[in-house]
Design goal:
The longest helix has 19 residues. About 35% of the residues lie in helices and about 25% in strands. It has about 575 residues and is an alpha/beta fold. About 0% of the residues have low confidence. The protein has three domains: about 220 residues, 3-Layer(aba) Sandwich (Rossmann fold); about 80 residues, Alpha-Beta Plaits; about 210 residues, P-loop containing nucleotide triphosphate hydrolases (Rossmann fold).
Length: about 575
């Protein structure tokens, strides 16, 4: 094992008057292993990767990549590394093969080497069947595979992957990891930046960053072990579990807490006693038991714990399934030529319920979601919001909903305040109502320090806060969230869900798509979409119970997701 990247006293400033993006960092990256780069939004992960790739020049200090100084000899570095940026950096209007050909031209990969390289990479990524498909028409997982193939054209010594699994479903994430471990076996060193902390546990070593500094470097298992005796499950809170979690998080002895289906996971402060049922303040009898820590528990605790600045979750009235549904899909179908993207999908979402849409990339989940929001007209069936058909009364129905897109869809050249003022006007708010609405969301999402900053220059976490703030300014009774926390760090995700839970407590109905399986456990019910059909609908724990077996006695929701997709494939093959 050799040192691929040597960093000594590294500093990177983008603004002489502001804090450093990288502040006196000293570390090393080794060969023949995956080194995970983790940290909250704005920690400096992307900046560090770009410095390793010689795409940025240090303000001070030294960084050597594969023996070459990035300031003095950057050109040779580009011949020995592969770099996959956070955003899809290929050409969406070119096919898979055209993208590979273009990047082979740029990297100097010529015949006869080119033919062999293409065959090897297409087989490695399983893209040989899609060489004539436009890159823009690929699913999220397939786009990442194509990006990886282009990064691997020159058989690099060092592969730099900046959040390669953002927006990728669990099945595709496992495939990406399988491919990366194959590369490790061939002697490649990999740096994998990630917002999915379960992925950090797959790394041989992790570098935990915050504010441009290293907080920890070493074995992720050793970091997890520091949390022994500080993690507990609270079971039995039932319908009051969201309110109980909100109360527990206000206690100084609790540094973190999340929902896991019907269970609440609590993490105590160092030296604090085990929590008691009284900490939740719920009427139902609650049992509290110790459980094994995970890397995410240690990460959140290291960063000071979840924010105490959360909106309180008000007690919800019980969902009455005899009530008219707040959102309904009736035989929803969408065809694109001969291809059926969504096939007679039906479900009902009751008022004050969180309903999740899960599914692999390309399964029809986004198509279904867009029809439910009124962004796509169904070929058959109907989508209703508060009893209003989005096809027959689109304006009235849209006035009843708030929508947050997967990709940042606000105006990057406008300031935060200007975006909020614009969307308040677009929702028909004026005068005192408009001023009150803007002030309310600025306070709720802690946007005051950024009011005069251009939205396009905000860190990803603050972009997502701003997008959600704009979506709820008119206090809609129905909220549609399309992967609202994709790519943001766990602390920001917790703030999001505290806000969403508080809104649900006031009777708001939420429909959400997500690739975070732990996040899906916040939902009351989920629908699993696969090959255009809803193959399973129910509470998260019901889906887990469906796949429980001797081999898998305690399945996670991710286990259930993959098992149900595989079961659907077997049934399809048997029927063929």
């Amino acid at each position: 094992m050799t040192t691929l990247v040597a960093i000594d006293g590294l500093v990177k400033n983008f603004d002489a008057s502001g804090p450093a993006a990288i502040d006196g960092l000293t570390t090393q990256i080794k060969s023949n292993q995956v080194t995970g780069l983790v940290g909250p939004d704005g920690a400096g992960k992307t900046t560090l990767i770009r410095l390793m790739a010689a795409l940025l020049t240090p303000s001070d200090g030294v960084i050597k990549t594969c023996g070459f100084d990035t300031r003095d000899t950057p050109e040779p570095i580009r011949d020995v590394i592969g770099y996959m940026p956070q955003k899809f950096g290929l050409y969406e209007d070119l096919t898979v093969m055209e993208n590979l050909t273009l990047y082979a031209d740029l990297r100097g990969v010529v015949d006869p080497q080119r033919k062999d390289t293409f065959e090897r990479l297409l087989a490695f990524t399983d893209l040989a069947r899609f060489t004539n498909r436009l890159a823009g028409a690929l699913s999220g997982g397939m786009k990442q595979k194509l990006g990886l193939a282009c990064a691997m054209l020159r058989s690099p010594k060092l592969l730099l992957l900046d959040e390669p699994s953002v927006g990728v479903d669990p099945i595709s994430r496992r495939e990406l990891w399988r491919m990366v471990y194959t590369l490790i076996g061939e002697g490649v060193g990999v740096v994998w930046s990630t917002a999915y902390l379960d992925e950090a546990e797959n790394c041989a070593e992790v570098i935990v960053m915050n504010a441009g500094r290293v907080l920890y470097q070493g074995d992720p298992k050793a970091m997890t072990a520091t949390m022994a005796g500080r993690v507990f499950y609270a079971r039995g809170a039932g319908a009051e579990r969201r309110e109980g979690l909100a109360r527990a998080l206000q206690n100084p002895d609790i540094v973190d807490g999340v929902m896991q289906g019907q269970t609440i996971r609590l993490v105590t402060a160092q030296g604090a006693p085990p929590p008691t049922p009284e900490i939740l303040g719920v009427a139902a009898p609650v049992e509290i038991v110790a459980t094994a820590p995970r890397f995410e528990d240690a990460f959140v605790a290291m960063l000071g714990g979840a924010s105490k600045r959360t909106l309180s979750a008000q007690a919800r009235r019980p969902v009455d399934e005899t009530d008219a549904p707040s959102v309904e899909a009736r035989g929803l179908t969408r065809r694109f030529g001969d291809f059926t993207a969504a096939d007679h999908i039906t479900f009902r979402i009751h008022r004050g319920e969180i309903f999740g849409l899960l599914g692999p990339n390309g399964a029809g989940k986004s198509t279904t979601f867009k029809m439910m929001c009124g962004l796509l007209r169904p070929s058959e069936g109907a989508a209703l919001v508060d009893g209003l058909d989005l096809a027959k009364a689109p304006s009235a129905a849209r006035a009843r909903l708030g929508y947050m897109a997967q990709k940042f869809s606000l105006y990057g050249d406008l300031s935060v305040r200007q975006n909020l003022e614009f969307f308040a006007g677009a929702y028909g708010l004026s005068g005192a109502r408009r001023r009150d609405a803007v002030a309310r969301v600025v306070d709720a999402f802690d946007l005051t320090p950024h009011l005069n900053a251009n939205a396009g220059g905000l860190p990803l976490g603050f972009k997502q806060r701003l997008a959600l703030a704009a979506a709820i300014m008119h206090e809609p009774p129905v909220l549609f969230l399309d992967e609202p926390t994709s790519g943001v760090d766990p602390l920001t995700r917790r703030e999001f869900w505290a806000t969403i839970n508080a809104m649900v407590g006031r009777g708001v109905t939420v429909m959400v798509t997500t690739h975070f399986m732990d996040e899906a456990e916040y939902c009351d019910r989920v629908a699993l979409i696969y090959r255009g059909k809803a193959i399973a609908t129910g509470a998260p724990e019901e889906l887990q119970a469906r796949v429980r077996s001797e081999k898998m006695p305690n399945p996670t929701l991710e286990d259930a997701f993959i098992a149900l997709v595989e079961e659907s494939d077997r049934q399809r093959e048997a029927a063929a």
